[in-house]
Specification:
Largest sheet: 5 strands, antiparallel
Number of domains: 3
CATH class of the largest domain: Alpha Beta
Strand content: 15-25%
Helix content: 25-40%
CATH architecture of the largest domain: 3-Layer(aba) Sandwich
Structural class: alpha+beta
Bound molecules: zinc ion
CATH topology of the largest domain: Dna Topoisomerase Vi A Subunit, Chain: A, domain 2
Radius of gyration: 23 Å
C-alpha cells in the first residue's frame, strides 16, 4: 500500500503532531509490554531484542521510548511502526483507526497556560472589525459587512509578524474550547488595502488542539447545538454559515485539528464539511472515523466538484438563470436535499446535472 500522496499533499508533520497528542506512549506500549513506573520513567522488557532485564525506558513527559540494550528508540508512532512492521504513515493510520485507546480529550500541559494567556491578551487588546482592512479583506472574499459585523469571534488588530518591527493590520479570529473559553487566536496579516500581506499570512497563537472558531450563521447562534458542522478554514466556515442559515459551524484552523474537536454534550450529529482537495478528503476521512467511533451520527458535505472549497463556491453562488418570468432565482431553489453515493456517503449539495459546471455560476458584482 502506497502512501505517497500523503507525503506530497498532506501536512505530515501536522498529522504526526495530532496523532502524538492523542495517544499516550505509555498506554500504547503498555498494551504489549508490561511496564513498571520507576521515578519519572516506565521500565519494561524490550520487545525488539531478547531482553532478560528490563532495558526499555518509556517517558510519558517526553513522549519517547528508548532501549538501553538494542538502542531502539523513538516516539509512539515509531513504536507502532517498528513493532508491527509498518511504514511511518501506516503506523499513524493504525493508531488513528486501530484499537488503541486515545487520551481523554483536551488536557492542557502547564506550559500551555502561558500560551493561552497570551492569546487572551491579544484578543482583549483587539478592536471591533468595522471599517478596518480586516473587513475589506472579508468583503473581498464574498461576505457582506453586516454579516461579518455580527461575528462575535472576529476582531481587528495591528501586529508585527515574525518578530519584525513593522506592524500590519490583522484579522483576528478567536478559537474556543468546548466550554467556550478562548484558547487560541488566529491572525491573518493584511495590507492597509485588505489584501493578504504575503503568501503565508497566517499565524496562530495559543493552544489550537481541540478548539475551533465558532461562526455565526444568519439565523444566529444556538447555545446547545445538536448538530455541529466542522470545516478546516475560517473562510470556509464563514461561507457555510452564510449558505446554511441554520447550521452551527465551527472552523478548526486546519486539517490536523479537524478530527480533534471536543463537542458539546448537546451534540449528537457531526457534519464534516471538507475541501475538495486531496488533503481535505483525507482529513475528512479521519474525522468521519473518529466521530463515528465515538457514537456520533456523521455526515459529510463537500462543495460541488467544480469548486475547490466552500469559499470559492460562495463566491459564485449567484446564479445567472432566471425562472422564466424574469425573476432571478435564489440559490436555494436548486437545493433539493443531499445526494448520496452507492456507499451511502453524502456527496453534499445536489444540483441538477446541467447546472454543475462553473459556467453556470457568476461572481457577485
Ligand atoms: Zn531492545
Amino acid at each position: 500500500m502506497s502512501y505517497g500522496t500523503y507525503e506530497s499533499d498532506w501536512d505530515a508533520h501536522e498529522y504526526a503532531a495530532a496523532i502524538k497528542a492523542r495517544f499516550s506512549i505509555v498506554a500504547v506500549i503498555g498494551e504489549t509490554v508490561r511496564l513498571k513506573k520507576v521515578g519519572k520513567e516506565f521500565k519494561g522488557r524490550c520487545p525488539f531484542h531478547d531482553d532478560k532485564t528490563p532495558s526499555l525506558s518509556v517517558r510519558e513527559d517526553w513522549g519517547w521510548f528508548r532501549c538501553f540494550g538494542c538502542e531502539a528508540a523513538g516516539d509512539v508512532i515509531n513504536f507502532v511502526q517498528r513493532s508491527e512492521n509498518l511504514t511511518f504513515f501506516e503506523a499513524m493510520r493504525k493508531l488513528e483507526m486501530g484499537t488503541y485507546v486515545p487520551r481523554p480529550p483536551l488536557t492542557f500541559e502547564p506550559r500551555d497556560d502561558d500560551r493561552i494567556r497570551i492569546a487572551r491578551e491579544m484578543w482583549a487588546a483587539a478592536r471591533p472589525i468595522e471599517d478596518t482592512p480586516a473587513m475589506k479583506y472579508l468583503e473581498s472574499r464574498g461576505f457582506p459587512s453586516p454579516f461579518i459585523a455580527d461575528q462575535e469571534n472576529l476582531r481587528s488588530s495591528n501586529l508585527s509578524i515574525d518578530g519584525s518591527a513593522k506592524k500590519h493590520p490583522v484579522l483576528m479570529a478567536a478559537a474556543r474550547s468546548v466550554d467556550g473559553e478562548i484558547t487560541a487566536v488566529q491572525c491573518t496579516f493584511l495590507t492597509e488595502e485588505g489584501a493578504k500581506l504575503q503568501e503565508s499570512s497566517r499565524r496562530s497563537y495559543g493552544v489550537i488542539a481541540g478548539s475551533a472558531i465558532r461562526l455565526q450563521s444568519v439565523a444566529g447562534a444556538t447555545s446547545e447545538p445538536s448538530d455541529v458542522w466542522l470545516c478546516e478554514g475560517l473562510e470556509d466556515g464563514l461561507s457555510l454559515a452564510r449558505l446554511y442559515e441554520e447550521a452551527t459551524v465551527w472552523a478548526t484552523l486546519g486539517a490536523g485539528n479537524l478530527p480533534n474537536i471536543t463537542l458539546p454534550s448537546s451534540c449528537s450529529e457531526v457534519t464534516i464539511a471538507g475541501d475538495n482537495d486531496e488533503s481535505g478528503r483525507k482529513a475528512s476521512e479521519l474525522a468521519v472515523r473518529r466521530y463515528g467511533n465515538e457514537g456520533y451520527e456523521v455526515k459529510t458535505n463537500f462543495p460541488p466538484a467544480d469548486f475547490k472549497d466552500w469559499n470559492e463556491f460562495l463566491m459564485h453562488w449567484e446564479f445567472e438563470e432566471e425562472d422564466g418570468e424574469g425573476n432571478k432565482l435564489p440559490w436555494r431553489y436548486w437545493y433539493d436535499g443531499d445526494a448520496f453515493d452507492e456507499e451511502g456517503a453524502c456527496l453534499g449539495l445536489s444540483f441538477p446535472p446541467e447546472l454543475r459546471t462553473a459556467a453556470n455560476f457568476k461572481a457577485p458584482l
